[in-house]
Amino acid sequence: MKAKAMEDNMTFHQRGWYGEVKVTRRAVSSYTKAIYLNMIAYEMCPHNPNDFRISSYVRVMKSLIMKESDVEELRNRKILVHCLGRDDEVVKMFDQIDIPPVNLFMFNQLRYEMGMLHNTKIKAWFWELFVTYFSSPWKALGLFIGTALLVLTLVQTHYTIKPPKGN
């Protein structure tokens, strides 16, 4: 099920047990704050027939980037590239951008659809299991080997305590 696009390059897809937010790669530099503020100011002009995509995009990014680990995850997923030196500089930059409450429908629609995915505990547990244990082939292989060893140990213990009749 594909959600409505927040921006041409920001969508949310729900696929059964998990959801995926697709965001286009963005570069963050020392000029990014000024660029975003100017673009937001242009969107606020009364003659501009705009749907406030930049403001909505920055609002979503502000909600995604709360701490340094969020920036690190976005960097690892190749969504955010920055040359500010440290990840906390990116967090500070997005914190300093004040966004007027415009086009809350687009923002709230994306947040609602993301929230609906995590309303059930089973989906959240499944996703946590998937991210934690199946994020790489080596982790998955280790989990399967560990589970097999545990099951074989339990079977061996059972047959040691209660051997089959006739032996």
From TrEMBL:
It comes from Smallanthus sonchifolius. The lineage of its organism: Eukaryota, Viridiplantae, Streptophyta, Embryophyta, Tracheophyta. This is Uncharacterized protein. It comes from the Eukaryota.
